[in-house]
Amino acid sequence: MKVAVIGTGYVGLTTAVSLAMHGHEILGIDLVAAKIAQLRQGKSPIYEPGLEEALTQMLEQGNLQFSTEIKDASEAEMMFICVGTPEASDGSADLSYLLAAVSDVASLQQPSSGKRVIVIKSTVPVGTGDRIAEQLRGNDSLYVASNPEFLREGSAMQDALNPSRIVIGADHEAAFAAMEQLYKGVNAAKVTTTRANAEFIKYASNAFLATKISFMNELARLSTVLGTDITTVAQGMGLDSRIGPEFLRAGVGYGGSCFPKDTIALLQLAGQHGISLSILDKVRDVNTTQPAWFLERLEEQLHGVAGKKIAVLGLAFKPDTDDIREAPSLKMLEALQKKGASIAAYDPIASAIVEAQFPNVEYVKHPSAAFKGAHAAMLITEWKECVQLDWKEIKASMAAPILFDGRNAWPGDLLKDAGFAYTGVGRS
Ligand code: UDX
Q: Which of 158, 233, 258, 287 is the pocket-test mutation for ligand 1 (most atoms within 8 Å of CB)?
């Protein structure tokens, strides 16, 4: 099928490349000329494992092209809208890019097939697709579908090629048929429903996953006092298929471009309708205070961090990405600096981006360099480079062998046996 993807950010680019890999003819569109020039040369503006290789391959095969001009997409039967819906000042989703893209599509001439489906992949408040369809009413060649994405950064290509499920919201047989044809050959459960339900599924899924994490983080606080081990508790809980083993990892909190933004947007939406989502409110509270709670444990142990050197391992909001949006590391660096600590930080790829915000931190090129002379080390992002370490060398190089594992990813028991003072999140 001929498909245009408007917006070549993280979601748009991954969608464009994966649809090209499924054999469709794809045109990626973005207003930013420099980005399009870069993409045409097979260079990905974001770091995502496997993305650049697949991009190059698809460009070579000729079923992926890029343009700054929407008019180049006049033959596209499907128009994926993948533009950002950033957080507005009141927490709601800012739809200005989305609405501009829809109006660009509406002004295009009809494709020779006579019909076109506008597919909204951007995360939008429930009811947005219906409102857009209402605005386009009278244009018989345009249909509107909602098709939310569930991609995780760091494994986005894998998730796009083998999705957990495909959710399609529409109100016309022609739109469902086009979407069916598009995803023919993708082996995943499909939910076909209304646009509003599809939009709600996306927000509800992210809110639920965020809830699982904050629930475990709050239990981890209790676990610390009880002297129990939250990782073992999570393991035992996860064996119950009604609970499931995923997203039960306690840590220093969730970050990224989705959970923080989507939870506040859902709270905003609920508020507009006079509904209080009190659980979700608490989920956000726990997440906001989790880095400070963990830092307090460190301060207790060190009797304050002023004048001490702290090693910070991992800065990206999760491994395998250079994304630092809402990363817990930023809160940690800010608090540590405010309290007078000196910091040596390591991240395999995100250091340069963090440096722009925190120029007074020492950024080292190798994880072991961060530990040198440190009075304590904290793991914030569980990159394999930050986990698979030569602990013997590290112990000899630290000023004090104190480890604070903010992701419960270091081998606690082994480290204690090796003479380290080890503290995890909800496990001592
Ligand atoms: C998330 C959703 O998983 C994805 O379906 C949606 O499309 C976008 O938002 P992403 O933000 O890329 O994806 O990463 P994810 O793996 O979900 O992790 C989000 C954050 O939660 C990270 O900071 C991670 O460290 C944290 N997390 C995750 C935990 O603290 N504990 C867990 O058990 C799982």
A: 258
325 belongs to an annotated ligand binding site: yes
- Residue 294 CB less than 6 A away from ligand 1: no
List, by residue number, the catalytic residues: 258
Distance CA 317, CA 271 (A): 28
Q: Is 28 in the pocket of ligand 1 (CB under 6 A)?
A: no
Identify residue 175 by its one-letter amino acid code. A
HSE-CB of 250 using CA atoms within 13 angstroms: 28
Residue 381 Cβ < 6 Å to ligand 1: no
Per-residue pLDDT tens for 385-417?
A: 999 999 999 999 999 999 999 999 999 999 999
Complex confidence, ipTM: 0.98
To the question of whether residue 150 is assigned a binding role by annotation, the answer is yes
Separation CA 350–CA 347 (nearest Å): 6
Residue 280 backbone phi and psi in degrees, to 5? -65, -35
Question: Do residues 126 and 203 touch, judged by C-beta distance below 8 A?
Answer: yes
Helix axes 278-302, 328-338, angle to 10 degrees: 40
**pTM for the whole thing?**
0.95
Any atom of ligand 1 within 6 Å of the Cβ of 149: yes
Please give the distance, rounded to the nearest whole angstrom, from the Cα atom of residue 15 to the centre of ligand 1. Answer: 19
- What is the per-residue pLDDT across 218-254, written as a single tens digit (0 to 9) for each? 999 999 999 999 999 999 999 999 999 999 999 999 9
Nearest CA to ligand 1 atom 32: 247
Q: Which helix (H) or strand (E) holds 110?
A: none
| DSSP 8-state secondary structure symbol assigned to residue 70 | G
Structural domains for the chain: 2-193 (3.40.50.720), 206-424 (3.40.50.720)
Helix (H) or strand (E) holding 28: strand 25-29
Closest-lying ligand 1 atom to the alpha carbon of residue 253 = 30
User: What backbone torsions phi and psi does residue 27 show, to the nearest 5 degrees?
Assistant: -120, 120
Decide: residue 188, CB within 10 A, 0-12 exposed, 13-18 middle, 19+ buried: exposed
Residue 427 marked in a binding site: no
